[in-house]
Request: fold
Amino acid sequence: MKYNSNFNDIAENYLFAEVADRASAYSAAHPDKKVLKLGIGDVTLPLVPEVIKALHAAVDEMSRKSDFKGYGPYEGYDFLRESIRGYYRSRGVNIALNEIFVSDGAKSDLGNILDIFSRDNVVLVPDPVYPVYVDTNVMAGRKIIYADASEKNGFLPEPDYSVKADIIYICSPNNPTGAAYTREGLKAWVDYANSMNAVILYDAAYECFIEDENLVRSVFEIDGARTCAIEFCSFSKTAGFTGTRCGYTVIPQELAKDGFSANKMWLRRQSTKFNGVPYIVQRGAAAVFTADGMREIKENISYYKKNAKLIADAMDELGVWYTGGKNSPYIWLKCPGGMNSWQFFDYLLENAQVVGTPGSGFGRNGDGFFRLTAFGSEEVTREAVGRIKLLLKK
Ligand code: PLP
Reply:
């Protein structure tokens, strides 16, 4: 027996552990100080009433012999897939029912989708980036190249035709940078992918934070995407399902090559390795798309967006360069005074008792930048913003 030696090549995942260690060491040394956390990417508001109602009703169904459900369809129940289809249709995007696959979240699907692609594909990942894209490919032994995101391109890299890539990751609105592609920006990637015979793995986990009309919520709003893109979506940030677990992936029928159909291969993969999302959870997820459910989740998203605006307004006032904050729950700021990410982390912790996430943890190009999130409570966000303003105004 041999272990997968590719695991030797995965960077030690120390970022959040190191953040937690430094924050608790500070608290232990200064028990009188209140430390405020704007670092985590998890939601804090509870599930909305419409979802809770549906979950309860589904639990009761499971208690009745006549309504009990055992194994469900691998690709998800039709009632939920119809609702997802309706959600896309309401934004002018037509997808077929058999193009929608319900899952236990975007992270699983983003990792598992690699099962359908050959190991010798070249993978193009933006830097900085959500670390899952890199680590899942390193585990499989794939070659990774990077698209540089920077202050110069607003952390939205454009395709470079001198570079040949087969699998391209795009996350918009982006984690960690909060930057989101315009229609033209994304069209450039779709054209590039089609010309390279490549696939775009489009992570739309934060689409519900988009408010600007010229920004894209689904890659399938772009002409040509049906021949080159797979979209990953999640109820985690849309509806607070981080602990409840549900997401969906859209694979168009047109995504096919050399006699292989990505859609058919994914169904085959899922039916082999996955036995579906619990019925109860799918009922809860479907409630998100009812009129009341939509209204309620929008109220929660507005709450987080107000927090984001508080932070973004403070950065404007302080003259600190940043991306995100408007169409995203993340604010990605340039560390003031030429500090690197960890220097700024310590400076903020020691002088304002505020914890954020060092940008260097998301890739080489993240150094010198810092991520703050809007997922905390309004009270904590207000207090943290007040302290940051006081500190950086000096
Ligand atoms: N994609 C991005 C960019 C994320 O930031 C996250 C979670 O933080 C996920 C996917 C994971 O989503 P899920 O909870 O549906 O697995």
In short: DSSP finds twelve helices and 15 strands in the chain. The chain has a mean pLDDT of 96. The chain has two domains: 5-47+294-392, 49-291. Residues 41, 105-107, 130, 171, 175, 203, 205, 234, 236, 242, 247 surround pyridoxal-5'-phosphate (CB under 6 Å).
